[in-house]
């Protein structure tokens, strides 16, 4: 495959919706796929709102916004995206969910199509092994939240990933205006191996009464020059996503220090997942 002109994005949540919008804004056709029609609807509203805000702020013209919106289509069936040149899975951070999707991707897309995953922590080699014959086409393409804003894409080869596949993925990341940086296939790669234990520790600091969430975040912002505090960031990422990543780190690295903090587990069990549910560490219902 020479130039990537279309991508399929499997999953229309926080990340999938952002990846589709970023692709379309760069002139790449995006098939947005999700099993949940409500999520597709939410993604569509997010696309319309973000594009119109971009026009208001003078970041793009109305024509560019219309053209980007016209490049995104929405599907509950992956089969409808079969003509995509490149496929990226951005669904729930659970191995069983992803392996099921990869099994379907193998059947739907042509045998030249790269099968990428936006996983935050799951082993690329393990995912690739579940579709053995296509393992050389599997690669980690890890975007950051919010995707339209964040420049980094961590690119992770599995044991069998073909060099050409790495090259195609790096090129696509650049075409989307991102900076690809390689990392090795270890749990959490670089970003979440370092970030998630810090977030988890912030939950412990809150649980143990070291300070209130606002003060923990303010201290980390002012003292470490972080653009937002770890608890605010956890809400942005999604507390369920943080929890799932900690579980992967715990299982793969085998140390108690990676076990998710009880305070984080409790909020996830209550369904307070952060921005996406309107309540997490903080309450967003009034804002
Ligand atoms: P999310 O919970 O917002 O969305 C997940 C989506 O996957 C949902 O819309 C769900 O309906 C969909 N889904 C589940 N099973 C599916 C299936 N079989 N087929 C199609 N869609 C399916 O999650 P998210 O935050 O967008 O995370 C998605 C992936 O991106 C995860 O692997 C996560 O670790 C990774 N990631 C997340 C962030 C972040 O900040 N949230 C950052 C980088 C990477």
Give a description of the structure.
The chain has 287 residues and is an alpha/beta fold. The chain folds into two domains: 6-183, NAD(P)-binding Rossmann-like Domain (Rossmann fold, 3-Layer(aba) Sandwich); 193-269, N-(1-d-carboxylethyl)-l-norvaline Dehydrogenase, domain 2, CATH 1.10.1040.50. It is built from eleven helices and eight strands. The chain has helices at 14-25, 37-56, 62-70, 95-108, 124-129, 163-175, 191-207, 213-224, 230-237, 239-253, 262-269, and strands at residues 6-10, 29-33, 72-75, 86-89, 114-117, 138-143, 152-157, 179-183. Strands 3-2-1-4-5-6-7-8 form an eight-stranded mixed beta sheet, with helices on both faces. Helix 1 crosses helix 3, helix 7 (191-207) crosses helix 10 and helix 10 packs across helix 11. It binds nicotinamide-adenine-dinucleotide. Nicotinamide-adenine-dinucleotide (NAD) binds at residues 10-16, 33-36, 39, 90-93, 97, 100-101, 118-120, 142-145, 237-238, 241, 276.
